[in-house]
Amino acid sequence: MDFWTTIGIKWKQWIFYPAKIEDPMVDRYAGVREHEGMHCAQFAKYGLLLMGIAYTIFPLPFLWSGRWWIERGPYLNDIRNGRRSVESAADVLWKYYGYPYSKAKMIKWFNDNLDAKSISREGAKDESD
Ligand SMILES: [Zn+2]
């Protein structure tokens, strides 16, 4: 596995990280830990069944998408923290999450939900996770 992911039940969650990473607790991974931590909170709130149903509902780019619903909050947080630009978040979601929602609508949602005082998008760095 070469990506971070989270699975859980209401009372316990597990974050998995790529085998090549020696120490997932170093500062370099603080942002991705925060992202996965948001998924832990989702598992704690909604439980495995609802999260599993949401995640496995296949790409419905113009209707409700479980993957988009799960990922939009953590990716918005990544954008706010400077880990990604709006465009790169939409690109990653489009490319690695099975076209979860219309790209234009993802970009619009991120822009609509960013604070006016948010991070400079030009300065956002891009790390793969
Ligand atoms: Zn995520």
Features:
globular; 129 residues; mainly alpha; binds zinc ion
Task: Describe, in plain words, how this protein is organized in 3D.
The chain has two domains: 1-42, no CATH class; 57-119. The chain is 50% helix and 8% strand. It is built from four helices and two strands. The protein has helices at residues 30-56, 66-80, 86-96, 103-113, and strands spanning 5-9, 12-16. Strands 1-2 form a two-stranded antiparallel ribbon. A hairpin with a 2-residue loop joins β1 (5-9) and β2 (12-16). The chain is globular. Mean pLDDT is 87; it is low at 118-128. Bound molecules: zinc ion (ZN).
Number of strands: 2
Biggest sheet: strand arrangement: 1-2
> What structural class do helix, strand and pairing data support?
mainly alpha
State the domain count.
2
Strand and helix order = EEHHHH
Average of the residue pLDDT scores: 87
Name the helicity range: 40-55%
Shape verdict = globular
Heterogens: zinc ion
Spans where pLDDT lies below 50 across 5 or more residues: 118-128
Helices, by number, come to 4
How much strand? 5-15%
| Main β sheet profile | 2 strands, antiparallel
Radius of gyration: 14 Å
How far apart lie the N and C ends?
A: 11 Å
Brief summary of the model shown:
This protein is mainly alpha-helical and 129 residues long. The chain has helices at 30-56, 66-80, 86-96, 103-113, and strands spanning 5-9, 12-16. The longest helix has 27 residues, at 30-56.
